[in-house]
Predict the structure.
Amino acid sequence: MTSTAVTPQSIQHAAELLHQGKLVAIPTETVYGLGADASNPDAVVKIFKAKGRPSDHPLIVHLAYASQMKDWAEPVPDVALKLAREFWPGPLTLILNKKAWVPMAVTGGQNTVALRVPDNPVALWLLRVFGGGIAAPSANRFGRISPTLAAHVAEELGDAVDCILDGGPCTVGLESTIIDLTDSQPTILRPGRITRSQLEEVLQMPVTLKSQHKIRAPGMLASHYAPNTPAFLCAAEALPTLLEQRQNQGQQVGVLTFSTKLSDLSCRHLLRLPDQAEAYEPALYSALRELDQLQLDSILVEQPPDSEEWMAVNDRLGKATL
Ligand code: TXA
Ligand code: MG
């Protein structure tokens, strides 16, 4: 399956495919999603098959408007309204108690549902034309790096998807922040571009951070977001020595850096990303894919700072490396 340019016709066609229970890959500002009609359990089952993902992993339901929250969740607490008003459309997913009718296939058998209004013009256009909710996980095979280009989706899923809408590169590039609002204490289940401080500021209350959540989620499997090539996180100071040791052993090594500390490092397979988290994020997954495709013996990844703005990157790198 090759990707399709976005036109009024292709959006109409994609909406029809969704109504027929078929799969459509959609661009969002975070990563590409593998979408199906969230109200159709048979369609949703196809997502799990195409990804090779266990069916107890819940999916995010994408909506065109925050006002649709009440169709999927009950109650819709004040905290959810506040966050939606501030951050939607945007890279924030809210976990709420689901309405009775919402298919268990979407929620992985749980009584909660994940909702998000994405900030991408193509996704919003399709959502408006389609009219309902689109259930979509990241459009990669289970355990692999999320796609940030239409070409990545084609590589990963091929003919398992009926249409791939090409919306260009994802501007955020890392999956959304997930916040659980089903308890009196809001809890971040997955860090993303929207930080804990931003959430606390809007809610005017403390938000906890759960590093491991009880639901079996992609984020808690060690192999998640991982390249095939063994990748290792290392401090900038240690990287040159580690590189030399491996090269002396005859290894082909890739390096992913960002800091000026390593600006004179010489290596054939070196990718340098921006040194600001907001610019690093949209480049990360493409860079990992690029290095992975070289079939090197290993990849050395420079460890980013341990600060809040780098939290989402550190979370994903922690899962992508050994
Ligand atoms: O940015 C994103 O969130 C992207 C784009 C496509 O929207 N989607 C994405 O989906 O990353 P996925 O399936 O790869 O990750 C969804 C995460 C999983 O960790 C899943 O466990 C969690 O959302 N999730 C979904 N429903 C949940 C629920 N009811 N309770 C707890 N976690 C839930
Ligand atoms: Mg995923």
User: Anything to note?
Assistant: The radius of gyration is 20 Å. The pocket of threonylcarbamoyladenylate (ligand 1) is lined by residues 28, 30-31, 33, 57-60, 91, 93, 95, 107, 110, 112-114, 116, 118, 136-138, 175-176, 178, 189-190, 215, 217-219 (CB under 6 Å).
